[in-house]
Design brief:
This protein has helices spanning 19-30, 71-84, 127-136, 148-153; strands at 6-14, 36-41, 45-47, 58-67, 100-106, 111-112, 117-118, 161-162. With 164 residues, the protein is α+β, with helices and mostly antiparallel strands. It is globular, with a radius of gyration of 15 Å.
Length: 164
């Protein structure tokens, strides 16, 4: 494996089976990914579900890692962590889940393959991603050159609550 050197951001979210514990266990598992080092982690944030609104609130966080893995290799490891934490994939898009690990940014690259899109398609409009991301990388610029601060200026924190 290559020496860790590529900066990446991963979004974590859970609303089933003790979400805070799901996030903490997933964070620990991320530190065990080969050729990958945890650099920073945000606070935990509570947010309402996108839909359906009848499901429990989510607990979210964002971490920064340095990795020597390719984006697809890192994604494979994230999906193995999801599976180990009881995540079952369904066709429903915003349904409840034990854990969701999204590769938000991989270096300064844009990736668009059938298996992976980076930057993550929802990154620019989801407060439960932008605010934790800004907490650990306030001066970040997206691959498009857009400053994270510009995205925050158009994204309300309504419904978000820092819990830890």
């Amino acid at each position: 494996m290559n020496k860790p050197h590529i900066s990446c951001y991963i979004g974590l979210g859970s609303n089933l089976d003790n979400p805070t514990e799901q996030i903490q266990c997933s964070l620990k598992a991320i530190t065990s990914i080969p050729a990958t080092n945890l650099i920073a982690q945000s606070s935990l944030y509570r947010s309402p579900p996108l839909c359906p609104p009848t499901q429990p609130d989510y607990i979210n966080a964002v971490v920064e890692v340095n990795t020597g893995l390719t984006a697809h290799q890192l994604l494979t490891h994230l999906q193995l962590i999801e599976k180990a934490r009881g995540r079952t994939r369904t066709t429903a898009r915003f349904g409840p889940r034990t854990i969701d690990l999204d590769l938000l940014l991989y270096d300064n690259l844009t990736i668009n393959t059938p298996k992976l899109i980076v930057p993550h398609p929802g990154l620019s409009s989801r407060n439960f991603v932008l605010y934790p991301l800004a907490e650990i990388a306030p001066d970040l610029r997206l691959p498009s050159g857009t400053p994270l601060k510009d995205l925050l200026a158009h994204c309300s924190a309504t419904g978000l609550e820092i819990i830890k």
